[in-house]
Amino acid sequence: MKWAFDVYDKDRSNTIDRHEMRLIVRAVADVVTVELFLGDDTPDAFADRLFEEADENKDGKITFEEFRKAAEHNDTLVNMLLPAPV
Questions:
Q1: pTM of the prediction?
Q2: Which of 3, 38, 47, 52 shows its CA 20 to 30 Å from the CA of 15?
Q3: Per-residue confidence (pLDDT) for residue 86, from 0 to 100
Q4: What is the domain-level CATH number for residue 47?
């Protein structure tokens, strides 16, 4: 879980901001079949939805604890970083 959080936390601030969330979702959308996780959303809209779900206290930053809790309810946060089965 910490590894996945660190992938999102590009600036190593120990929090994830909306921009970082969008960067990861865009990167994943560039290399996988988009419909597998985006559905009808654009990458940014999907990232914003994930961000809103995870930012429990609505301060514009996701802490590791918020990330952990969100991942328990929405495994997409972690699963989109894992390699696809061959």
A1: 0.83
A2: 38
A3: 42
A4: 1.10.238.10
